Amino acid sequence: MRSIAVSLMVTLLAPPAIAQSNRPPNWRVRTDAPTTDTIIHQVMAPGWHITSGPPAILFDPANQARGRFAVEAEIFLFPGQSSDGYGVFLGGADLEGPGATWVAFLLTRDGSATVMRRHQSHDLVLFPVTKSAAVKPHPGEGTAHNILRVLVQGDSVVFSANGQRITALDRRDLPLDGAFGFRVGKDVNLHVSNLDLVTRLAPFPIRR
To answer: Residue 9: which of 47, 52, 55 has the closest Cα?
Structure first.
């Protein structure tokens, strides 16, 4: 297996203001709708800090995943009132056009998880918001530390948090080759310490 560490870097795609210092190049931000609200992103070693205003995805078009792979992110959620989800997306296509599509694995402040698909501004829930013992809820003070992992195999996709499986879906129903990055809901304050892509190089059995 080969592990590739990916740095989170943001440049402006949609209209939100991203006026702060120490903002690395190369990544893009796409908000769900045009807005003048602010999204803050900056390097804060070890990792990067993101404070969303509007809901958005953050991605580098050069970061692509295909075949059999896993995407993993280590995220710290800070105090706040928003119940919106935060996590990773994959299978991104046409992210700079009107037909944007992607699949997101999201956690929420109360210790729930969900999987949803965005296609041309429409959302489809693939796994409903469900509380899980695998997800650490925010305690009210400090941070909630969670490691999200999406394992894309030959015929299935496994969604896990902190090493525990939450759900699995049939890959044949999901277009998952494409760009990957982060999905942040409204008014979410996060520190991201890792975003990793692991690709499987060994051959696997052919099902007949």
So the answer is: 47
CB of 29 closer than 8 Å to CB of 184: no
C-alpha span between 181 and 102 (Å, rounded) = 10
Q: Classify residue 55: in a domain, yes or no.
A: yes
Q: Answer yes or no: is 208 within a domain.
A: no
DSSP per position, 141-162: SS-EEEEEEEEE-SSEEEEEET
* Greatest distance between any 2 Cα atoms in the chain: 55
CB 71 within 8 A of CB 180: yes
pTM reported for the whole predicted model:
0.87
Full residue range of the structural domain in which residue 179 is found:
2-199
pLDDT digits 0-9 by tens, 69-117? 999 999 999 999 999 999 999 999 999 888 899 999 999 999 999 999 9
31-78 pLDDT tens trace: 888 877 777 877 677 878 899 999 999 998 999 999 999 999 999 999
CATH number at 60 reads: 2.60.120.560
Would you say residue 120 lies in a domain?
yes
Section 19-36 average pLDDT: 73
Is 195 part of a structural domain of the chain? yes
Residue identified by tokens 């296509």 is 93
